[in-house]
Write a structure and sequence with these properties.
The protein has 200 residues and is of the alpha+beta class. Strands 1-11-10-7-8 form a five-stranded mixed sheet, with no helix packed on it. The protein is globular, with a radius of gyration of 17 Å. The chain is built from three helices and eleven strands.
Length: 200
């Protein structure tokens, strides 16, 4: 499948890709216990979380502005049912930009495992069939996206998602991996227990 991410004219400091596994909910889930959570998963699909960094630096609405532009968040092209995946917490995720290797990690490196996410989210809002949970990335080996780029996301046993990037402003950033962001995330995560319940 081929689709296009259009970078908005917003004054972002950089646009990043975040390679992620998406979880598709299969039945209504409300206040689900962690031990039962995986029974509510219908399937999985590749997902690219496109992020516009540096908007609203005071923090108000920053997450929404960063993630929610039209065409951000491409996913697919196929949905793999849960019964076809032996262990969703042990899948290799790789993304290349113009054939250059960027992120390459395992879903075992998620900050929060899938069953914990479902328990937590369903305690706040009822999850409906077809709802999609983007499970996050490890924030290592991110890189800039710019006009003309081709992203290819591959998740083990889920296939390939190919996405192009369009930017009418033709902005440019340094090519390759953004090590500054990776280091900042590593420093922030020092001492963090990834199996703890998320704090909002």
């Amino acid at each position: 499948d081929r689709s296009t991410v259009v970078l908005p004219s917003a004054n972002a400091t950089i646009f990043h890709h975040e390679a992620e596994l998406a979880v598709v909910i299969g039945k209504t889930a409300s206040n689900v216990k962690r031990k039962d959570a995986m029974n509510y998963v219908f399937g999985y699909t590749p997902f690219i979380d496109v992020s516009a960094r540096g908007l609203n630096p005071d923090g108000r609405l920053s997450f929404f502005l960063m993630k929610s532009w039209e065409t951000f968040g491409p996913m697919g092209p196929f949905l793999t049912t849960a019964d076809e995946i032996n262990d969703p917490q042990n899948l290799r995720i790789q993304i290349k930009v113009n054939d250059e290797s960027r992120q390459d990690f395992n879903t075992s490196d998620m900050a929060h495992p899938i069953d914990l996410m479902i328990e937590f989210l369903s305690s706040i809002v009822t999850l409906e069939p077809g709802d999609v949970i983007a499970t996050g990335t490890n924030h290592q080996a991110l890189g800039a996206l710019q006009d003309g780029d081709e992203m290819v996301l591959e998740i083990e046993d889920l296939g390939l998602l190919t996405v192009f990037v369009k930017d009418d402003m033709k902005r440019q950033w340094g090519r390759g991996i953004d090590e500054e962001t990776a280091k900042r995330v590593r420093d922030t995560a020092t001492g963090f227990n990834p199996r703890n319940k998320p704090k909002i």
